[in-house]
Write a structure and sequence with these properties.
- It is a single chain.
- The chain is 46% helix and 14% strand.
- The protein is built from 12 helices and 12 strands.
- The longest helix is centred in the N-terminal third of the chain and has 39 residues, at 2-40.
- It is globular, with a radius of gyration of 28 Å.
């Protein structure tokens, strides 16, 4: 009996030791699995407070707004852009990518067919329903806050997006170069009087900008300020109000195919418009779509406008940097990377 009891004790002890070993081994396997899973995904909070899981390594990106497409290319990540919208036209290579429809109503089926690791959206143009539907389908959607008030806020957002797309170095370089260009403008213009302008987003009806928009902030970097003071982002005003305000310059941007000369001739042929001093003096500037997009090309537009409004501040023959410098920089970054490694939605 003693032997039998001792044997049972030994057997139980051995069994417990074996169970303990197995439990420790299983726990170790669980830890390894958790570590592997953690390396495969990461938790990210986007600009509108949505917390989501996204792949640690992003290889396929779909953008739902033109400015987001520009940012991807400016970071040298054009090869990772799996698709964009039908309105994405800058740089020209963006027009060759598969399109998923219009920014405000993209096709969910087309987006899913591209198997994106990440979809980029913005509150300024995309609908909340689009982002929510994609999230429910298991797609990581990073939404940037498109209601930017300052250029520096736009630069911060670019740097943030670059980091989670795995391009922190390129993002730091891009933001640094853009900030240096803005600082150079400030140094040239800080002691010069502001030029009072009417910034025309749309002519019929006449729509301009509010004082709390990133475009108004961009005007300040260019040594100008809007003659219209409004808390609305896109106020509609009458031409009679403009005559009363008498801006020094009229600035057109976005959606206007005419040259500055053709725009001036058109204004001089219009009743009331021709009564403006700026029209009589020929003080009309015409900027491209970049002037109203929170993307790297916005700095080009600001530099162009600064040269137009303050020619005396820039030496003759000096380089005018309004020819998509950052897109050229992005191409250089892309070449360098290949040489190194053969690489309103709330």
């Amino acid at each position: 009996m003693k032997r039998s009891g001792r044997a049972r004790t030994i057997a139980i002890t051995a069994g417990l030791l074996i169970l303990g070993t197995v439990a420790r081994a299983f726990a170790a396997l669980q830890d390894d699995w958790r570590a592997t899973a953690a390396q495969g995904t990461r938790i990210v909070t986007d600009d509108v407070g949505r917390v989501m899981k996204m792949p640690a390594h992003v290889n396929r990106i779909v953008t739902l707004a033109p400015n987001l497409t520009e940012i991807v290319y400016a970071l040298g990540l054009g090869d990772k852009l799996a698709g964009d919208t039908s309105e994405c036209d800058n740089p020209p290579a963006a027009k060759l990518k598969p399109h998923v429809g219009e920014p405000q109503n993209p096709s969910l089926e087309a987006i899913l067919a591209l198997h994106p690791d990440l979809v980029l959206a913005t509150t300024s143009i995309n609908r909340v329903e689009t982002a929510d539907a994609l999230v429910r389908l298991g797609v990581a959607v990073y939404t940037s806050d498109g209601e930017f008030r300052t250029l520096l806020g736009i630069l911060d957002s670019m740097g943030k997006m670059a980091e989670f797309m795995g391009a922190k170095r390129q993002g730091d370089e891009l933001v640094s170069r853009l900030r240096q260009r803005l600082d150079a403008l400030h140094a040239r213009l800080e002691n010069r009087p502001m030029v009072h302008v009417l910034f025309v987003v749309w002519k019929d009806p006449l729509i301009t900008i509010g004082q709390n928009t990133f475009i108004a902030d961009g005007l300040r970097w260019a040594g100008a300020e809007s003659v219209v003071l409004s808390k609305q982002n896109w106020p509609q005003i009458s031409i009679e109000e403009v005559v009363h305000l008498q801006p020094d310059y009229i600035v057109f941007a976005g959606g206007h195919a005419q040259t500055a000369g053709a725009e001036l001739a058109d204004l001089r042929a219009r009743p009331v418009w021709r009564d403006l001093d700026a029209v009589e003096l020929g003080h009309v500037a015409n900027l491209n779509e970049e002037a109203i997009r929170p993307a790297p090309g916005l700095v080009d537009a600001i530099e162009q406008l600064a040269h137009e409004l303050h020619p005396e501040a820039f030496p003759k023959g000096g380089q005018n940097r309004n020819s998509n410098n950052e897109m050229q920089f992005a191409s250089a970054v892309s070449v360098e990377m290949n040489a190194e490694c053969h690489q309103c939605a709330r």
